[in-house]
Amino acid sequence: MHHHGYLWTGPKERFDQEALRRPPHPEPPPPGSKPELAQRYREVAAEFPVSDLPPIETAYWLVKPRSLIRGTWDEAKEAAAWLGECLAEYAHRFTSERDRDVVRIASLVDSAAARLGSGGDVSLGLYLERPSYLSLAVVTCSPNRSNPELPCPVR
User: Fold this and answer.
1) Does 95 have pLDDT greater than 90?
2) What's the DSSP call for residue 40?
3) H helices within the chain, ranges in order?
4) Res 102: pLDDT
5) Cβ(109)–Cβ(81) below 8 Å
6) Hey, which bits of the chain come out as E strands?
7) Does the pLDDT value for residue 155 go beyond 80?
8) Could you tell me if 138 and 5 are in contact, meaning their C-beta atoms sit under 8 angstroms apart?
9) CA gyration radius, the chain
10) Mean pLDDT in residue range 32-61
11) β pairing state of 2-11 and 69-73
12) Backbone torsions φ then ψ of 137, nearest 5 degrees
């Protein structure tokens, strides 16, 4: 078991494009469907695997391009430490004073280490100024507990 880290920042309105954050349905629309529906399915099927947008289901980071991986760790504590470093780096930009609290950040890191150590994934999202958004995720791999059929992007 190992862990991959992902980081995304961008405009909140782009993050809210949920159709591009969901994997396409396994079956295309049936013949005779509205052309707009078929076109939208083709767009999502083409965009989802290559888009840098965070997927709604954390495990689906594993189907995204390898270039989006910010780090890989064998130990849960190392992966959680990376989350802590990222949170500390962005803390001055958090819109909520509560999110900047160092005790809260340490608690998030401790909780992440426990979750990762048990084979779970961790996904955090925080509002930044301007309205921007920070998405951090660490995905447990080989296999992923929630989606064991997803292949490891590195090994």
Assistant:
1) yes
2) H
3) 12-15, 35-47, 76-90, 97-100, 102-117
4) 95
5) yes
6) 2-11, 69-73, 122-128, 132-141
7) no
8) yes
9) 17
10) 92
11) antiparallel
12) -145, 145
What does the alpha-carbon distance between residue 47 and residue 88 come to, in Å, rounded to a whole number?
Answer: 32
- In the three-class reduction of DSSP (H, G, I as helix; E, B as strand; rest coil), residue 94 is classed as strand
In this structure, which amino acid lies at residue 69? I
- The tokens describing 65, both together, are 């391009």
Name the packing angle between helices 76-90 and 102-117 (round to 10°).
Answer: 150
The answer for 9, left when phi > 0, alpha when psi is -120 to 50, beta otherwise, is beta
Q: CA 76 to CA 129: how far, in whole Å?
A: 30
Q: What is the pLDDT of residues 98-150, one digit of tens each?
A: 999 999 999 999 999 999 999 999 999 999 998 899 999 999 998 999 999 99
Written as six digits, the tokens of 140 are: 């447990």
- Candidates 82, 64, 110; CA nearest to 2 is 82
128 is written with which tokens?
């930044």
Q: Residue written as tokens 């150590």?
A: 117
Spatial contact of 10 and 139, defined as CB atoms under 8 Å apart: no
Q: How many residues does the chain have?
A: 155
